From TrEMBL:
Gene3D superfamilies: E3 ubiquitin-protein ligase SopA. It comes from the Eukaryota. InterPro entries: 5peptide_repeat, At2g44920-like. SUPFAM superfamilies: Pentapeptide repeat-like. This is Pentapeptide repeat-containing protein.
């Protein structure tokens, strides 16, 4: 079975049961490994990506699709790609243009997203524990149900991101992060205000001000 991704479209999608045990490299050198029950992660970085039949080419139960919007009631719009259950832990996406890409329900522990363009990206129900978002553009990102325990959002721009009460922030670093127009549950806001410091170097907005922290 071969799947092909170019731009925002997925050419061939298959089904079967088993696991993929190969690494795939994009034209610009980005390499991604695929684990159990994952057909593809379509990062659409402006170049084609082919998925050869490798390992056990039997994919029943894998779910890969391209559709409209993220898996959230709060967002709508076209997404470049949608992946479910993909494990990209410890990957290096620093400085990448990942605008609109969805990592929904994926495992992204310790991933390096520093300085990445993640505008309108979806992390719906994703495990982002210990991920590095330093200096990243997370404007209008979907963080619904996301686990951000221990993540580094230093100097990140999170303006207008979608957060719900079950989004986890324990142990997060937010020095210089800009959360303008992000709506938090009161206990989330209180916790973030208790650790907030710094001013975003791009927007020039202080973290405390963006969180509407009391004087």
């Amino acid at each position: 079975m071969v799947g092909f991704v170019h731009g925002a479209g997925l050419g061939v999608v298959g089904s079967g049961r088993g696991r993929v045990v190969c690494d795939v490299k994009l034209d610009d050198g980005l390499q991604v490994g695929f684990g159990a029950l994952s057909l593809a992660v379509a990062l659409s970085l402006g170049s084609g990506l082919a998925f050869p039949a490798c390992g056990l080419a039997d994919f029943t139960g894998a779910q890969t699709k391209v559709g409209s919007g993220a898996a959230s009631t709060g967002f709508s719009g076209s997404m470049k790609s949608v992946t479910r259950g993909v494990d990209v832990s410890a990957s290096d996406f620093s400085g990448r243009d990942l605008k609109g890409v969805s990592f929904q329900q994926s495992i992204a522990r310790g991933v390096n997203f520093s300085r990445a363009n993640l505008f309108s990206a979806s992390f719906f129900d994703a495990d982002l524990s210990d991920a590095n978002f330093e200096g990243a553009d997370l404007r209008q990102a979907n963080l619904e149900l996301a686990n951000l325990r221990g993540a580094n959002l230093k100097n990140a721009i999170v303006e207008g991101a979608y957060v719900v009460g079950s989004t986890k922030f324990a142990g997060i670093t937010i020095e210089g992060a800009d959360f303008t127009d992000v709506f938090f549950r009161k206990d989330q806001q209180n916790y973030l205000c208790s650790i907030a410091s710094g001013v975003n170097p791009v927007t020039k907005v202080s973290t405390k001000e963006s969180l509407l922290c009391p004087e």
